[in-house]
Amino acid sequence: FRDVPVEFSGEDTTLADKGYMLLSCENTTIDIRLKGSRSVISDLDRSSLRVVADTSSITETGTKTLSYQVYYPDSVSRASAYTITVQVGELARKEVPIRCELEGEVAKGYTAGDAVLDPAVLELRGQRDDLASVSYAKIHLSVQNAEKTVIQALKFELYDYNDILVQNENIRAAVKLIQVTVPVRTVKEVPLRVEFREAPGSTLSQIEYTISPRTVELTGEKSVLDGIDSILLDTVYLQDITSSKSLHYTIPVPDGCTLPEGVEIA
Protein backbone atom coordinates (compact mmCIF):
# COMPACT_ATOMS: atom_id res chain seq x y z
CA PHE A 1 0.00 0.00 0.00
CA ARG A 2 1.63 3.21 -1.18
CA ASP A 3 1.29 6.69 0.31
CA VAL A 4 -0.54 5.75 3.51
CA PRO A 5 -0.91 9.00 5.55
CA VAL A 6 0.84 9.24 8.91
CA GLU A 7 -1.08 10.48 11.97
CA PHE A 8 0.90 12.21 14.73
CA SER A 9 -0.57 11.51 18.17
CA GLY A 10 -0.39 14.35 20.68
CA GLU A 11 0.56 16.94 18.05
CA ASP A 12 -2.24 19.38 18.94
CA THR A 13 -2.27 18.59 22.67
CA THR A 14 0.86 17.36 24.47
CA LEU A 15 3.33 18.70 21.91
CA ALA A 16 1.53 22.05 21.60
CA ASP A 17 1.46 22.40 25.38
CA LYS A 18 5.25 22.09 25.36
CA GLY A 19 5.46 24.97 22.88
CA TYR A 20 6.55 22.91 19.86
CA MET A 21 5.11 21.98 16.48
CA LEU A 22 5.94 19.66 13.60
CA LEU A 23 7.07 21.41 10.43
CA SER A 24 5.84 20.37 6.98
CA CYS A 25 4.29 17.10 8.11
CA GLU A 26 0.76 17.65 6.80
CA ASN A 27 1.23 15.31 3.83
CA THR A 28 3.66 12.79 5.35
CA THR A 29 3.04 9.29 3.95
CA ILE A 30 4.76 5.91 3.97
CA ASP A 31 4.56 2.70 1.95
CA ILE A 32 3.49 -0.46 3.78
CA ARG A 33 4.11 -4.07 2.77
CA LEU A 34 1.89 -6.58 4.57
CA LYS A 35 1.93 -10.38 4.65
CA GLY A 36 -1.09 -12.63 5.08
CA SER A 37 -3.26 -15.23 3.42
CA ARG A 38 -4.36 -14.38 -0.09
CA SER A 39 -8.04 -14.16 0.91
CA VAL A 40 -7.29 -11.66 3.69
CA ILE A 41 -4.85 -9.53 1.68
CA SER A 42 -7.23 -9.29 -1.26
CA ASP A 43 -9.95 -7.84 1.01
CA LEU A 44 -7.74 -5.13 2.50
CA ASP A 45 -7.90 -1.49 1.44
CA ARG A 46 -6.26 1.74 2.59
CA SER A 47 -9.14 2.60 4.92
CA SER A 48 -8.36 -0.48 7.05
CA LEU A 49 -4.81 0.74 7.77
CA ARG A 50 -3.66 3.42 10.22
CA VAL A 51 -0.13 4.63 10.80
CA VAL A 52 0.35 6.53 14.08
CA ALA A 53 3.60 8.21 15.13
CA ASP A 54 4.04 9.19 18.80
CA THR A 55 5.27 12.75 19.50
CA SER A 56 5.49 12.42 23.30
CA SER A 57 9.28 11.97 23.25
CA ILE A 58 9.91 15.41 21.69
CA THR A 59 11.47 17.87 24.16
CA GLU A 60 13.31 20.32 21.87
CA THR A 61 13.46 21.71 18.35
CA GLY A 62 15.45 20.23 15.49
CA THR A 63 15.45 17.00 13.50
CA LYS A 64 13.85 14.14 15.43
CA THR A 65 13.28 10.46 14.79
CA LEU A 66 9.88 9.10 15.84
CA SER A 67 8.72 5.51 16.01
CA TYR A 68 5.37 4.69 14.50
CA GLN A 69 2.86 1.87 14.85
CA VAL A 70 0.84 0.30 12.06
CA TYR A 71 -2.72 -0.66 12.97
CA TYR A 72 -4.41 -3.24 10.75
CA PRO A 73 -6.79 -6.23 10.99
CA ASP A 74 -5.72 -9.01 13.42
CA SER A 75 -5.69 -11.53 10.58
CA VAL A 76 -2.62 -9.85 9.05
CA SER A 77 0.81 -10.72 10.39
CA ARG A 78 2.41 -8.05 12.58
CA ALA A 79 4.57 -5.53 10.76
CA SER A 80 8.04 -4.64 12.01
CA ALA A 81 8.53 -1.41 13.94
CA TYR A 82 9.82 1.47 11.87
CA THR A 83 10.82 5.07 12.43
CA ILE A 84 10.16 8.36 10.69
CA THR A 85 12.17 11.59 10.66
CA VAL A 86 10.48 14.94 11.33
CA GLN A 87 11.46 18.55 11.83
CA VAL A 88 10.39 20.22 15.08
CA GLY A 89 10.07 23.99 15.55
CA GLU A 90 8.92 26.39 18.25
CA LEU A 91 5.17 26.95 18.36
CA ALA A 92 3.64 30.43 18.37
CA ARG A 93 -0.04 31.34 18.64
CA LYS A 94 -2.08 34.14 17.13
CA GLU A 95 -5.79 35.01 17.19
CA VAL A 96 -7.32 36.56 14.07
CA PRO A 97 -10.85 37.86 13.41
CA ILE A 98 -13.25 35.90 11.21
CA ARG A 99 -15.15 37.66 8.44
CA CYS A 100 -18.39 36.11 7.20
CA GLU A 101 -19.57 37.04 3.72
CA LEU A 102 -23.24 36.33 2.99
CA GLU A 103 -24.01 35.30 -0.57
CA GLY A 104 -27.43 35.62 -2.18
CA GLU A 105 -30.68 37.10 -0.88
CA VAL A 106 -33.13 35.63 1.61
CA ALA A 107 -36.69 34.94 0.43
CA LYS A 108 -39.00 37.88 -0.24
CA GLY A 109 -40.55 39.18 2.97
CA TYR A 110 -37.67 37.91 5.13
CA THR A 111 -34.61 39.59 6.61
CA ALA A 112 -31.24 38.18 7.66
CA GLY A 113 -29.83 39.08 11.06
CA ASP A 114 -26.21 39.37 12.12
CA ALA A 115 -24.09 36.23 11.80
CA VAL A 116 -23.04 34.52 15.02
CA LEU A 117 -19.73 32.64 14.76
CA ASP A 118 -18.41 29.80 16.89
CA PRO A 119 -15.59 30.34 17.63
CA ALA A 120 -15.82 34.13 17.40
CA VAL A 121 -12.07 34.40 16.65
CA LEU A 122 -9.71 31.86 15.13
CA GLU A 123 -6.62 30.68 16.96
CA LEU A 124 -3.72 29.92 14.64
CA ARG A 125 -0.59 27.96 15.50
CA GLY A 126 2.71 27.98 13.70
CA GLN A 127 6.09 29.62 13.60
CA ARG A 128 6.10 33.32 14.39
CA ASP A 129 7.33 34.39 10.93
CA ASP A 130 4.58 32.37 9.23
CA LEU A 131 1.83 33.80 11.42
CA ALA A 132 2.98 37.42 11.08
CA SER A 133 1.47 37.87 7.61
CA VAL A 134 -2.02 36.60 8.48
CA SER A 135 -4.60 39.34 9.04
CA TYR A 136 -7.95 37.53 9.14
CA ALA A 137 -9.93 34.43 8.21
CA LYS A 138 -12.89 34.45 5.84
CA ILE A 139 -15.90 32.18 5.37
CA HIS A 140 -18.70 32.30 2.79
CA LEU A 141 -22.32 31.43 3.60
CA SER A 142 -25.16 31.20 1.10
CA VAL A 143 -28.55 32.49 2.31
CA GLN A 144 -30.18 32.35 -1.11
CA ASN A 145 -33.99 32.12 -0.74
CA ALA A 146 -33.68 31.19 2.94
CA GLU A 147 -36.93 31.24 4.95
CA LYS A 148 -35.49 30.04 8.27
CA THR A 149 -32.33 30.43 10.31
CA VAL A 150 -29.27 29.09 8.47
CA ILE A 151 -26.74 27.06 10.47
CA GLN A 152 -23.66 25.58 8.79
CA ALA A 153 -20.14 24.44 9.66
CA LEU A 154 -17.82 25.99 7.08
CA LYS A 155 -14.21 25.79 6.02
CA PHE A 156 -12.23 29.02 6.15
CA GLU A 157 -9.45 30.71 4.21
CA LEU A 158 -6.69 32.94 5.56
CA TYR A 159 -5.81 36.36 4.12
CA ASP A 160 -2.94 38.77 4.63
CA TYR A 161 -3.07 42.52 5.27
CA ASN A 162 -3.37 43.16 1.52
CA ASP A 163 -6.40 40.85 1.24
CA ILE A 164 -4.32 38.23 -0.59
CA LEU A 165 -5.00 34.56 0.09
CA VAL A 166 -2.44 32.91 2.39
CA GLN A 167 -1.62 29.29 1.57
CA ASN A 168 0.91 27.92 4.06
CA GLU A 169 0.71 24.33 5.28
CA ASN A 170 2.88 25.23 8.28
CA ILE A 171 0.03 27.29 9.72
CA ARG A 172 -2.42 25.20 11.73
CA ALA A 173 -5.74 26.25 13.23
CA ALA A 174 -7.23 25.19 16.56
CA VAL A 175 -10.42 24.13 14.70
CA LYS A 176 -11.04 22.87 11.19
CA LEU A 177 -14.54 24.35 10.75
CA ILE A 178 -16.37 27.52 11.81
CA GLN A 179 -20.03 27.18 12.79
CA VAL A 180 -22.04 30.15 11.60
CA THR A 181 -25.65 30.93 12.51
CA VAL A 182 -27.60 33.57 10.61
CA PRO A 183 -31.14 34.20 11.90
CA VAL A 184 -33.69 34.64 9.13
CA ARG A 185 -36.86 36.36 10.29
CA THR A 186 -40.14 37.62 8.94
CA VAL A 187 -42.93 39.90 10.23
CA LYS A 188 -46.50 39.07 11.24
CA GLU A 189 -49.21 41.48 12.37
CA VAL A 190 -51.20 40.11 15.32
CA PRO A 191 -54.05 41.68 17.34
CA LEU A 192 -53.85 42.54 21.03
CA ARG A 193 -56.76 41.31 23.14
CA VAL A 194 -58.20 41.35 26.64
CA GLU A 195 -60.39 38.65 28.16
CA PHE A 196 -63.38 39.84 30.19
CA ARG A 197 -65.06 37.99 33.05
CA GLU A 198 -68.71 38.87 33.57
CA ALA A 199 -70.64 38.83 36.85
CA PRO A 200 -74.28 39.47 37.82
CA GLY A 201 -74.90 43.14 37.13
CA SER A 202 -71.58 43.52 35.31
CA THR A 203 -71.83 42.36 31.72
CA LEU A 204 -69.93 43.05 28.54
CA SER A 205 -73.00 44.80 27.07
CA GLN A 206 -72.60 47.55 29.64
CA ILE A 207 -69.14 48.67 28.51
CA GLU A 208 -67.28 49.94 25.52
CA TYR A 209 -63.52 49.52 25.21
CA THR A 210 -60.65 50.20 22.84
CA ILE A 211 -57.09 48.84 22.74
CA SER A 212 -54.30 51.04 21.44
CA PRO A 213 -52.40 49.94 19.48
CA ARG A 214 -54.97 47.48 18.19
CA THR A 215 -52.33 45.31 16.52
CA VAL A 216 -48.56 44.94 16.67
CA GLU A 217 -45.99 43.61 14.24
CA LEU A 218 -43.98 40.72 15.61
CA THR A 219 -40.61 39.81 14.11
CA GLY A 220 -39.36 36.25 14.43
CA GLU A 221 -38.92 32.83 12.86
CA LYS A 222 -41.80 31.87 10.57
CA SER A 223 -42.25 28.59 12.44
CA VAL A 224 -42.71 30.54 15.69
CA LEU A 225 -44.99 33.21 14.24
CA ASP A 226 -47.25 30.60 12.63
CA GLY A 227 -48.29 29.51 16.12
CA ILE A 228 -49.24 33.03 17.31
CA ASP A 229 -52.70 34.36 16.43
CA SER A 230 -52.97 37.09 19.09
CA ILE A 231 -51.37 38.45 22.25
CA LEU A 232 -53.33 38.39 25.51
CA LEU A 233 -52.76 41.48 27.64
CA ASP A 234 -54.82 40.60 30.72
CA THR A 235 -58.02 39.14 32.13
CA VAL A 236 -60.34 41.91 33.38
CA TYR A 237 -63.15 41.22 35.90
CA LEU A 238 -66.01 43.56 35.02
CA GLN A 239 -67.25 43.73 38.59
CA ASP A 240 -64.06 45.67 39.39
CA ILE A 241 -64.85 48.31 36.77
CA THR A 242 -67.09 50.95 38.35
CA SER A 243 -66.25 53.91 36.13
CA SER A 244 -64.35 54.85 33.00
CA LYS A 245 -60.63 54.23 33.32
CA SER A 246 -57.46 53.61 31.37
CA LEU A 247 -55.46 50.43 31.99
CA HIS A 248 -51.85 50.23 30.89
CA TYR A 249 -50.08 46.96 30.09
CA THR A 250 -46.56 46.05 29.08
CA ILE A 251 -47.05 44.04 25.92
CA PRO A 252 -45.82 40.46 26.58
CA VAL A 253 -43.45 39.43 23.82
CA PRO A 254 -43.61 35.74 22.87
CA ASP A 255 -40.34 33.80 23.15
CA GLY A 256 -38.18 34.15 20.06
CA CYS A 257 -39.92 37.32 18.86
CA THR A 258 -39.29 41.06 19.02
CA LEU A 259 -41.48 44.15 18.80
CA PRO A 260 -40.69 47.33 16.86
CA GLU A 261 -38.66 49.80 18.87
CA GLY A 262 -40.87 52.12 20.93
CA VAL A 263 -43.87 49.76 20.95
CA GLU A 264 -43.93 48.46 24.50
CA ILE A 265 -47.12 49.64 26.20
CA ALA A 266 -50.81 49.07 25.32
Describe this structure as you would to a colleague:
β13 and β14 form a beta hairpin. The chain has 4 helices and 20 strands. The relative contact order is 0.12. Helix content is 7%, strand content 44%. The model has no long low-confidence stretch (mean pLDDT 90). It is mainly beta and 266 residues long. The strands form 4 sheets. Strands 2-6-5-4-1-3 form a 6-stranded mixed beta sheet. The protein has a 6-stranded mixed beta sheet with strand order 14-13-11-7-10-15. Strands 8, 17, 18, 19 and 20 form a 5-stranded mixed beta sheet that branches.
Structural class from helices and strands? Answer: mainly beta
String of helices and strands? EHEEHEEEEEEEHEEEEEEEEHEE
In angstroms, what is the radius of gyration? 32 Å
Biggest β-sheet, characterized? 6 strands, mixed
**Per DSSP, what share of the residues sits in E-state strands of 2 or more residues?**
35-45%
- The share of residues in helices is under 10%
Q: What's the total number of strands?
A: 20
Q: Uncertain regions: pLDDT < 50 for 5+ in a row?
A: none
The shape, in one word, is elongated
Distance between the termini: 75 Å
- Give the strand order of the largest sheet, numbering strands 1, 2, ... along the chain: 2-6-5-4-1-3
The count of helical stretches stands at 4
Provide the residue-averaged pLDDT: 90
